[in-house]
Amino acid sequence: MHTRTNTVKIGQTLIGDGHFALIAGPCSIENKEILSETSKSVQNSGANLLRGGIFKLRTSPNSFQGLGSEAFEAVRLAKEETGLPFISEVTDPRQISDLMPLLDAFQVGSRNMHNYELLKELGKTDKPIILKRGFSGLIKEWILAAEYITSAGNDQVILCERGIRTFETATRNTFDINAIAYVKENCSFPIIADPSHGTGKTSLVKPISLAAIAAGADGLMIEVHPQPAQALSDGFQTLNFNEFQSLVHHVKQMLPLFSKTLEA
Amino acid sequence: MHTRTNTVKIGQTLIGDGHFALIAGPCSIENKEILSETSKSVQNSGANLLRGGIFKLRTSPNSFQGLGSEAFEAVRLAKEETGLPFISEVTDPRQISDLMPLLDAFQVGSRNMHNYELLKELGKTDKPIILKRGFSGLIKEWILAAEYITSAGNDQVILCERGIRTFETATRNTFDINAIAYVKENCSFPIIADPSHGTGKTSLVKPISLAAIAAGADGLMIEVHPQPAQALSDGFQTLNFNEFQSLVHHVKQMLPLFSKTLEA
Amino acid sequence: MHTRTNTVKIGQTLIGDGHFALIAGPCSIENKEILSETSKSVQNSGANLLRGGIFKLRTSPNSFQGLGSEAFEAVRLAKEETGLPFISEVTDPRQISDLMPLLDAFQVGSRNMHNYELLKELGKTDKPIILKRGFSGLIKEWILAAEYITSAGNDQVILCERGIRTFETATRNTFDINAIAYVKENCSFPIIADPSHGTGKTSLVKPISLAAIAAGADGLMIEVHPQPAQALSDGFQTLNFNEFQSLVHHVKQMLPLFSKTLEA
Amino acid sequence: MHTRTNTVKIGQTLIGDGHFALIAGPCSIENKEILSETSKSVQNSGANLLRGGIFKLRTSPNSFQGLGSEAFEAVRLAKEETGLPFISEVTDPRQISDLMPLLDAFQVGSRNMHNYELLKELGKTDKPIILKRGFSGLIKEWILAAEYITSAGNDQVILCERGIRTFETATRNTFDINAIAYVKENCSFPIIADPSHGTGKTSLVKPISLAAIAAGADGLMIEVHPQPAQALSDGFQTLNFNEFQSLVHHVKQMLPLFSKTLEA
Q1: Mind telling me how many Å the CA of A224 is from chain B's nearest CA?
Q2: Beta bridge partners of A8
Q3: What's the rounded Cα separation, in Å, for the pair A88 and B134?
Q4: How far is D136 from chain A (nearest CA, A)?
Q5: ipTM of the complex
Q6: Is C57 in contact with B165 (Cβ distance < 8 A)?
């Protein structure tokens, strides 16, 4: 029902033009065991890409800032055990060389959509870039930010809508569903949805995931943890394993209506 | 997949708890012929409720303000020809007595969500009220506004999400898809979606309609006109007859997944 | 330093073109004694216009809604004792005839800026109208709303900036100081500031009042109560008598720099 | 009238606790001649600190990105000719070592308020940091961002309010005057105002500058260019030499009322 889009390849997983990306994993990598357990569980449920935070940008300098390079071994193990590609956020141009051999795609977080020095540097790599929308980025600014990457030579860009900052306080952010449909109509980058940040509430992740598919999304990025209430970050918007499995069940019912497939 | 909701009955059409409302018609009633032609066409395509503006609230005093009481005869004809219930906006407590014998439900527009004097007066009637969200109304304020109606004695309230005002300018409003899911989880009023105002762009009406269903909406309100480019108001967000028919086709594919039915 | 503006006359008090309006009084009229005491105190401190809420629009139907017509006698007494003009909010076209002999100017509250039926009706009266900006009204919409009044025949309009709804939560609203300067430059209506609602915090009322004068405001509207902590509404943003006196002291220091005078 | 604040020293210029900072210069450094001419003119008018953009963050990769290191010589000349300290924006941690011998203070731009890797690196230097508020940063997040700098060991932080992103489109940003008063009351960092970005309109720079002083600001940062209409960036919000001189005239009238002094 929607316009043709570019395809982007993360590891062996195709995204765009009918190929659906289901990215899952914990907000932060806390240790080897939790990442391994979570990765195997989400793979069994149907995820075809893994995620986990290594360097975290937190509002307060006193919040948990991620394990940094201590998380590398956990990532290697999760990739080995599942054979799935791994995505994580880069927050500083000086991290790129270390992360390059570890990751299959770089994520640029919402706080860095306007960090053009970082985008230019990523444009010089040959890895796919998942560019999250700034929480107050205009759609037009977001597409221009993507062009900082492509004009440096890297056309493997995927946009990710993750909610915008508005006056509403009942939800953590306002998921901008219009942005999904608008991007599908007006540019050729694949676009995925992050309903975990887009809502900030575990109970809303499923309905907004399905809504994003209906609006044309090429994939989902979902925060999953064995025990969300114990997670070191974002537990309130994280699914447990059963909730993720139930989400995938409904996603699989929806995809055929939109001529999309979820491939292992 | 969602919580049980109250049912509301507009004429003989049930809304809520699995019964889907498909409301369609022109933004403004321009004359008898256009309303009649539009009403018959949307009924053929599957609409089970009609709408059309009689009193219009426009930003400028120099814009078309609606036909007012001159539109009454056109409404009577459309109802007679189709047998469908008719919904229109009330903008002043002093209009209620005249509109009472004509309409099957009153709509309160976005600009009047905070007009509590009007809401109290509507609470004294026995007609269903479709309460649009103020374009900057908090969800919590919106539910409290509905309580102005129910606490005056009328519990036949349907909420309607129609987009909120944010910093984004690529679309006329930001359709708050989170609000649909949030309301389904937190209160028992049926909730419908107005993707015409929620996007302000004809081409986005279909994807956002389907997204609203996926998020749990109990109905849709869609602006339809035989020639949108000639409409006296809101043409840029209005569907023509073919576009509406195509929308209904996709709506009907989606509804069974969400255990909802569209009844004639 | 700023463009010439129209003058508006409320009772015998001139506003605009160098004549400064200092409007003060309680958010809601609670009883005769408090209104009388407050009115005399603010007059002694320098206020040249009185205010007090008769009909209150409150977010919840269970909050105090104002005394309604029971407050009329208290208003008459305060006017008699001070000789000052009295301003109060009108929330329904059906209140106009009762309020007409009582009030010297009508205030339209933020929730009613888009209530064009009310504005048209007020345009038929010969009383000055203080038109508050909707908390999400564009400046352009606000000026067009004023034209609903003037095009009905009443050119005695004063605009009142009272803060807009944004993502910021540290203050109740974001006082839009740009709007003061923009209106002075782009239209000839006098404009006053309501820093009580614009900040929602007693301690910020003074600095924002002075800022409004520096940006060009033609007046201030300040909530004052003998014991703010006991007020039935808005106590957290209300000044006590001493705080109001201190505010006036600083206002009087500022006005000569901006070629404005505060007349009794 | 306001709380005591820390003092910060940029070169020999004190800021805070009654010492007022008047920072002026072009948005971007375009060449040696324009920077020199502008620096001498703003010094004559009363500026006690200079500014000029070396590395520019622009929404589009096709816009002028600043001269980069080619501007260094122009900065050295301007400092030599005027004896004034120079401030410029740093956009990447890798620029710090090159800029260190050149600049007297680092500015962090609005797009980088959330770039915590940059803030941590600046916290390790001994230069003052002017931290602009993110255009959608909560005041609380802004103060926490400052703590990324202080907790790394550098307590020489000045906050700069430069307008926030809201629904209003009449002005480029909404200058948050409440933020000035709120910061003065709730933390001890000096705070300055950037009315050039805060309004986006040359004609509004003066009234908003004066308003910022009235609300408690410890300084102003103003864009000045000999021919704003020819400037390579931000001409529409830039003052020419006469306009700057007129602004300083009014600033000097205001400062004594607020117990502040502008020292050469």
Answers
A1: 20
A2: A15
A3: 39
A4: 6
A5: 0.96
A6: no
How far CA B17 is from CA of B2, B24, B216, B258, in Å, comes to 9, 21, 11, 11
SS in 3 state form for D220-240? EEEEECCCHHHCCCCHHHCEC
Minimal Cβ distance to B92: which of C93, C114, C147 = C93
Mean pLDDT of D210-238: 96
Report the distance separating Cα B52 and Cα B29, nearest Å. Answer: 5
- C-alpha distance from C252 to closest chain B C-alpha (Å): 37
Separation between Cα atoms, residue C201 and residue C205, nearest integer Å: 7
Measured on CA atoms in the order D161, D92, D124, A89, is the torsion positive or negative? positive
Residue D4 has pLDDT above 80, yes or no: no
CB-based burial label for D256 (10 Å; 0-12, 13-18, 19+): exposed
Cβ within 8 Å of residue D70, ≥6 positions away: none
DSSP 3-state of C120 = helix
Q: Note whether C141 and B60 are within 8 A (CB).
A: no
pLDDT digit string, tens, across residues B74-121 = 999 999 999 999 999 999 999 999 999 999 999 999 999 999 999 999
Tokens of C44: 């002694």
Cβ neighbours of residue D232 closer than 8 Å, sequence gap 6 or more:
D27, D28, D30, D64
The CA distance from B169 to B176, in Å, is 15
Alpha helices in chain B (DSSP H): 32-45, 72-82, 96-99, 116-123, 139-150, 177-186, 195-199, 202-215, 241-254
* B264 — pLDDT class (breaks 50, 70, 90): confident
Domains of chain A: 8-54+67-258 (3.20.20.70)
Query: Which residues lie closer than 8 Å to B164 by C-beta, 6 or more apart?
Result: A166, A167, A168, A174, B133, B135, B136, B137, B173, B174, B176
DSSP state of B187: -
Q: Which residue has the tokens 């994939």?
A: A219
CB-based contact, A168 to chain C, within 8 Å: no
Q: How far is CA A144 from CA A119, A125, A154, B254, in A?
A: 11, 18, 14, 34
C88 DSSP β-pair partners: C106
Query: Is residue C157 within 8 Å of residue C125, measured between CB atoms?
Result: no
* Rounded CA separation B237/B224 (Å): 9
Q: Is A59 on the interface with C (CB under 8 A)?
A: no
Check: CB of residue B118 under 8 Å from CB of residue B108.
yes
Amino acid identity at B10:
I
Q: What percent of chain D has pLDDT over 90?
A: 95
Higher-pLDDT residue of D78, C3: D78
Per-residue pLDDT for B47 more than 90? Answer: yes
Distance of CA D169 to the CA centre of its chain: 23
- Residues in chain B, total: 264
| Closest CA in chain C for residue A168 | C167
Query: Tokens in use for C50?
Result: 């009185």
Residue C124: how many other CB atoms lie within 10 Å: 12
CA B111 from chain centre, in angstroms, equals 14
Average pLDDT rounded to a whole number, residues D51-77: 94
Distance of CA C192 to the CA centre of its chain: 7
For residue A77, count other CB atoms closer than 10 A to its CB.
15
pLDDT tens-digit map of D118-145:
999 999 999 999 999 999 999 999 999 9
3-state secondary structure of A138: coil
Q: Which two tokens stand for residue D235?
A: 């001409």
Q: What is the pLDDT of residue D55?
A: 95
Cβ atoms of residues C138 and D168 within 8 Å: yes
**Each residue of C134-163: b (16+ CB within 10 Å) or e?**
bbbbbbebbbbbbbbbbbeebebbbbbbbb
**Rounded CA separation D156/D127 (Å):** 7
Q: Across the interface, which of B59, B92, B116 has its CB nearest the CB of C117?
A: B92
Helix (H, G, I), strand (E, B) or coil at B233: coil
Whole-prediction pTM value? 0.96
CA distance B88 to B96: 11
Which 3 state secondary structure label does DSSP give C11?
coil
